[in-house]
Design goal:
The structure holds 2 protein chains of 2 kinds. Chain A is built from no helices and 11 strands. Chain A is globular and about 35 Å long. In chain A, the strands form 2 sheets. In chain A, strands 2, 4, 5, 6, 9, 10 and 11 form a 7-stranded mixed sheet that branches. Chain A has a 4-stranded antiparallel sheet with strand order 1-3-8-7, with no helix packed on it. By secondary structure, chain A is mainly beta. In chain B, the strands form 3 sheets. In chain B, strands 2, 5, 6, 10, 11 and 12 form a 6-stranded mixed sheet that branches. Helix content of chain B is 0%, strand content 54%. In chain B, strand 5 and strand 6 form a beta hairpin. Classes of the chains: A mainly beta, B mainly beta. Chains A and B meet through strand 5 and strand 10 of A and strand 5, strand 6 and strand 10 of B.
Chain lengths: 112, 113
């Protein structure tokens, strides 16, 4: 049972390039999330999807877009990467928003 | 909205010593409370949670946390730590609807030999 799978694990982008971070869960969870983790700032919610077909902005959505492709998959897109988006990105899922989350292992993104 | 304070950013402790990681929250409504652990270069893992019922909750690896409503706290404790407990620990709070789920800034626990 894989849980939450994120790809890629590492990525280096040049400023202005675009990329999509992929996330898939196999636990039949309704809700999925994208967080970024920066030193001294804990985890900050970028976007979430409470259920298939819905997405909502979190605390720091600027510069990002998301797609809830189906119940299993929730992707995060950076259209024009900036150095301020250098971070570790985590995808998570849960049965519903007030339950505990299951996290992926993260994507370490560096924008130069 | 909820907020979470973890008073200690770093806690060094010797192996086999007891440890307490402090977490306080602020909320005007009833809450659910969680502790997550993040080992180096890994994602967060749910350690334990309080949803309702007994205010003392335990994890499978010897940690426990007690919900104290009057002090709005959910401190994490372990009577004897191991080197393998070295990790970052995050407290989190959610309102009952889940619309406001907030993580604390984390406490880095370093267990020294």
């Amino acid at each position: 049972n894989a849980g939450v799978t994120q790809t890629p694990k590492f990525q280096v982008l040049k400023t202005g390039q675009s990329m999509t971070l992929q996330c898939a869960q196999d636990m039949n969870h309704n809700s999925m999330y994208w967080y970024r983790q920066d030193p001294g700032m804990g985890l900050r919610l970028i976007y979430y999807s409470a259920s298939e077909g819905t997405t909502d902005k979190g605390e720091v959505p600027n510069g990002y877009n998301v797609s809830r492709l189906n119940k299993r998959e929730f992707s995060l897109r950076l259209e024009s990467a900036a150095p301020s988006q250098t971070s570790v990105y985590f995808c998570a899922s849960s049965v519903q928003r007030n339950y505990g989350y299951t996290f992926g292992s993260g994507t370490r993104l560096t924008v130069v | 909205a909820q907020s979470v304070t973890q008073l200690d950013s770093q806690v060094p402790v010797f192996e086999e010593a007891p440890v307490e990681l402090r977490c306080n929250y602020s909320s005007s409504v009833s809450v659910y409370l969680f502790w997550y652990v993040q080992y180096p270069n890994q994602g967060l893992q749910l350690l334990l949670k309080y949803l309702s019922g007994s205010t003392l909750v335990e994890s499978i690896n010897g940690f426990e946390a007690e919900f104290n409503k009057s002090q709005t706290s959910f401190h994490l404790r372990k009577p004897s730590v191991h080197i393998s407990d070295t990790a970052e620990y995050f407290c989190a709070v959610s309102d009952r609807s889940g619309q406001n789920f907030v993580f604390g800034p984390g406490t880095r626990l370093s267990v020294l030999p």
